[in-house]
Amino acid sequence: MELLGKxxxxxxxxxxxxxxxxxxxxxxxxxxxxxxxxxxxxGFIHRDVKPANFACGKNERIRIIYMLDFGISKRLSPASAxxxxxxxxxxGSLQGTIRYASIACHQCQELGPRDDCESWxxxxxxxxxPMGESIM
Length: 136
Known about the structure:
single chain; 136 residues; mainly alpha; Transferase(Phosphotransferase), domain 1; two-stranded antiparallel sheet; two-stranded antiparallel ribbon; 5 helices; 40% helix; Protein kinase domain-containing protein
């Protein structure tokens, strides 16, 4: 039994130029950002934000996007959650998918919620910009 539809990477790759329209890409990206915000509020960071880790629902929920794959996510302790809200970070090694990883992740620096947000930004650009083209 399938509970969810296709992930955003598969949907994007099935499109003519392998990109979403601006309206579709921004709408999907907004739902992904909302899911990240809720994850951070719950005290976790995802650490692998990418189109393949977000999928559409099925049937009447086809326009709802769900976050997937919490395999390398990390729980923030109450003390570190407070520190993160002030801009702190976890010490770490390269985590997630290189294409969407934050600069801090590439430098094997500490990771925090803002790194998920940076990865989300790279993901959003990937969803709406044809490969190799500038969005400017």
